[in-house]
Amino acid sequence: MMKRFFLVLSLAFVGIAPARAALQIQSWTLNNGARVLFVESHSIPVLDLSVEFDAGSRRDPQGKAGVAELTNAMLARGLRESAAAAASGAEPAVSEAQISDTLADTAAQRGGGAGADRAGASLRTLVSQPERDTAVRLLARILAHPSFPENLLARDKARVIAAIREEDTKPEAIGSKAFWRLMYPSHPYGQQQTVPSVESITRDDLVAFHNTHYVANRAIVSIIGDISRAEADAIAQQLTVRLPQGAPLPALPPVEPPPSRNENIAHPASQAHILLGMPAIARGDPDYFPLLVGNYTLGGGGFVSRLTREVREKRGLSYSVYSYFNPMAQPGPFQAGLQTQKDQAGNALNVVRDTISAFLRDGPTEQELKAAKDNLTGGFALRIDNNKKILDNIASIGFYNLPLNYLDTWTANVAKVTAADVKAAFNRRLALDKMSTVVVGNGQ
């Protein structure tokens, strides 16, 4: 399922090495309200771009979880006839097959998806004309004029329903859904797709959702490639000129940390799947860097983390154990998890809780702090080693309103984190007595 598709930049998001400090993000706003972020890169004759909106699953209508995902998935299932944005005559209807053929003929690749916060589409195309113009013009129509054909909606609904039914047999998916319901009992983040919710979705629901959320004044256009700023501006205008203006969206409810709850779910799997956590941090929070550095020591550093040492190496209770923070537009969760033998589930959970408790009490050692910083800063090159990865980063910067120099200042922000900063941030954001637990396959 695509619900968490755009949780691309969790606290594993790392910053820029000094060698790439010249990466300059230019940004401006079009007359229609769309925001543009552009990186000029002449390394290869390719253009990568994306257009995203506040159209993720948190905007699903009540009782119709799945509308955001289906709307996004069906953007390219067909295009309705429309008047051209410029004085170039009518634009005829286009079928799904014709869309695919046009992309193939121009050697272009379309992508995208819907996550919890945002949804949109991406494009990789050659910078040469007419290939670039054809691909960009097609994407602009895909965003603005989807036809949402009834027969293909039935097909896509059947696909989603089949995926839900399959997921509901898997302990990891069962646990994840239960975890999000516990973390967000009264917030859209906790709303889950179900067979009835998807069955209830109609074409009118998709049309209404698209008209409300795929609008110019909330579009984030991210571009990187072998073009000039003037060309990037023209492309951004072309991508958004067909989009309407949108009215302000209703405010979503605040994320209120729920009372601690434990949910045991019987399952015939040979191992118990354990999740533990609570809502913790939103994008742009000043505690981001201390939490990032500290979590590497706690459970984000793989075999060098404390959780791995305590759960796996000392006691042999699990092959893998982890923790991470998932910052979102509104506070996303801290999550720790592992798999273990059913008869060891209670013991393993106690070890995880004791390890978190000790970290909250003591924070990291100076040696752990140095190792975390060295690893995080040293590994960044692999995360921005192609234009697509850079595009993902600048799209997140745009959507979450992070500073344009976020990448350039990242290593400095990591470097200045102290052990005291880590301890203070963790204690501001986490409390063991407020964490909820899900165990799937609890020995029953």
What characteristics describe this protein?
globular; about 450 residues; single chain; about 40% helix; six-stranded mixed beta sheet; about 20% strand; five-stranded mixed beta sheet; disordered N terminus; Cytochrome Bc1 Complex, Chain A, domain 1; alpha+beta
Sheet with the most strands: spatial strand order: 1-2-10-3-9-8
CATH fold-level topology of the largest domain: Cytochrome Bc1 Complex, Chain A, domain 1
Strand content: 15-25%
Order of helices and strands: EEEHEEEEHEEHHHHHEHEEHHEEHHHHHE
Task: Write up what this structure looks like.
- This protein is an alpha+beta fold and 444 residues long.
- Helices cover 39% and strands 18% of the residues.
- A hairpin with a 5-residue loop joins strand 1 and strand 2.
- The radius of gyration is 23 Å and the shape is globular.
- The N terminus is likely disordered.
Give a summary of the structure in a few sentences.
This protein is α+β, with helices and mostly antiparallel strands. It is built from 15 helices and 15 strands. The model is unreliable at 1-21 (pLDDT under 50).
List the helices and strands and how they pair.
Blueprint: E1 26-29, E2 35-40, E3 46-53, H1 67-73, E4 78-79, E5 82-83, E6 90-91, E7 94-95, H2 96-105, E8 109-114, E9 119-126, H3 131-144, H4 150-167, H5 171-183, H6 195-199, H7 203-213, E10 220-225, H8 229-240, E11 262-265, E12 271-281, H9 288-300, H10 306-313, E13 321-325, E14 332-341, H11 345-362, H12 366-378, H13 387-399, H14 410-415, H15 419-429, E15 436-440
Parallel strand pairs: 2-10, 11-15
Antiparallel strand pairs: 1-2, 3-9, 3-10, 4-7, 5-6, 8-9, 12-14, 12-15, 13-14
